[in-house]
Amino acid sequence: MAGELQVLFQSLPPARKRLIAVAVLAGGITIGAQVRKLVRHTQREQRALCAEVEASRGSSSTSRRVSGSVRIAVDKRFLRRLLRILSICVPSPWSREAGLILVQGCLLVSRTLLTDYISRIEGYCGSTLVSQQFDKFWRSLGAFAIIGIPAALVNSGLKYMQKQIELAFQQRLTTFLHAQYCSNRAYYAASTLGGLTHADQRITEDVEKFAASISELYAHTFKPLLDVVLFTRSLSRTMGYRGQFMLYGYYIAVAYLLRAISPPLASMTAQEAALSGAFRAAHQRLVTCSEEVAFNDPPAGAAEQLVLNQHLRRLLRYTGLSALLRGIQQVADGYFVKYFASVTALLVYATPIYFAAPSARGSQGELTRDYIRSMRLLQNTSRGVGDLILVYKRVTALASHTSRVSELLEQVARLVGEDAEHRELFRKNVSVNHFLGLSEPYHAPGEPVVPYEPPPPPKRTLGDTLRFRRIALDSPDGTPLIRELSFEVLPGKSVLLMGPNGCGKSSLFRVLAGLWPLQAGEITTPAKGKVFYLSQRPYLVTGTLRDQILYPNPPRSVWRGATPVEHSHFVAESGWVPPPPAAELDSSLEACLRSVELEYLLARHGWDAVHNWNEVLSGGEKQRLAMARLLYHKPQYAVLDECTSAVSADGELRLYSECLRAGVTFLSIAHRPALKRFHSAVIHFDANVSKTGRGWWSEVLPEPGAGGGAAGGSGPQVASAGSAPASLMPAYIPGGGNGSGKFGGPTRGHYVGN
What we know:
This protein has 25 helices and 12 strands. By secondary structure, it is α/β, with parallel strands linked by helices. It folds into 3 domains: 33-417, ABC transporter transmembrane region fold; 455-540 and 618-754, 3-Layer(aba) Sandwich (Rossmann fold), CATH 3.40.50; 543-616, no CATH class. The protein is elongated.
């Protein structure tokens, strides 16, 4: 068909030929203009989708900072970020990763040399076949079959080594991120205080994509570069350097052309990842809040369906538009880099032969040999140069993955640092209310005005007891919760915190644990390992029943699979002591289960059965199991944040009795008055700083087990400076004046203990 059209075109008169040529040219220009218009329309629609997504995220400063200032380009900043990440992936020249890169480099060199040798054999086979030298042809054919064995091994080895490099980089980078993300409670700051969006996706998918992209880039950059250098030298023997320079000039022009018409591949890749993360987050939000949604369904379920479908439409629409832009780009790449490059290569090879004298062209066998070898080398050279031209695509994709991974590293580093951004923002947010609004002298209603001493700067120290001195506490939005809070929890003198929701009880625990920054005052805590925290929602690990009680020690299966370096790091961080022999350990754990009335779990599941314990256990069973965990570890102090709210009243009394019997002193949050009998004092939070001046007051109780507490005697007493029992009188009483070892400032609060 093509031949018939060619004959028909040749038979046309010159005027008709010119008319057809003009029509084809005009059609090409029109199509190009329409394609350009389509590209611009597509990019505008993509920008509109991005703007819609940004608007749906809200107007928080974190959102604007994280997503509003994204700039992805192949520039010095990209190179600095890439070098930093590579320094993590390849920590030293003697590392395993460096060895893998060296081995792959040797394989790439071997493959290029084998390709050059195979092209010689192919040319020799063609020459001997045309000249009918069949003995030499059969020998060369045998050599061809033999050389294919190492060639096949090298090709497979290259793919294997590329995957090994990818996995090694992924392991090294993910392990580094895990160490950063799990230190200094960065994971808590990321999920609670913000500053790190879609951490799960970035640590898993983005790191994996970066490792795949960088390992692929190495193979697709080093090999074509080596091919061009070696094949240029081999081609110089048959066609000289002048024709090759003409071919390289064509490739340089094509490279500039393709770069000029290329869409923003890096930004598209990054935005696709962001949209995918938003879609995943929407599903995760529905899973997390499933009960709240179900209570209002219908129509809440249908509303969530609309939200999920909207995220899906945005993701699919943006991905489809990106595929269209990439498809248009691939048409240009394929034509200029592959097909028209072959035409140029043939033209470069044939031109010297066409203009050479017939006597200088050589015999038919020599021409066949040189043609087969030269075309083989030219094809490989063209492919190598084409790969180098298209490296910009891989580099821009790498720039996108590098940007997201680098942002992850930078944000995690900020969260881990002692002067991390979220802490500074927290302090700045509350300092105005605290130091401006409450820096003037003030007093509680009905009490005399005394000189006001500003609170001490925030300070944390280690000691033998839990001690709070002149604590000022504000919520993250700047609402004042507590002022001038001072008390001490001595061994055996447990303290109960009571008050309405939102008054600062749990906030005080967050400050105590270091989850929130201390704003003013001093906190003294025992060394790590001597304070144990139990929240209202117990955390159950993935593992066996034994692992639930041993937590926060790692599950046995995890410990067995850890490396010696990880063992040393965990022991150094936690001060962990290896458990006793298995029989003795299981006996101790069984006693803990009996103490919390959960021994039936052992009969039902055994020690070594792995379950999803969040689904297997009820809310009360989870809290009992957490108390068994507390009884096993037997810390000096236990901080209990409504940890028995799902347990019956009788069961709650049993659990607290077991804690007292184990010698644990606790700082508790609870709402049931019956728990007062297990405490020496109560700190009442009244959520009314503006009226009381402090937001709290204290109540001294009879000793646990004495006539007024456990046995139902005269009941609790309100502490005051002159009426508190001598055994429970505070060591320091705020309000007694300044300069005499007392904390100063009028308040109804007292130090608890003696």
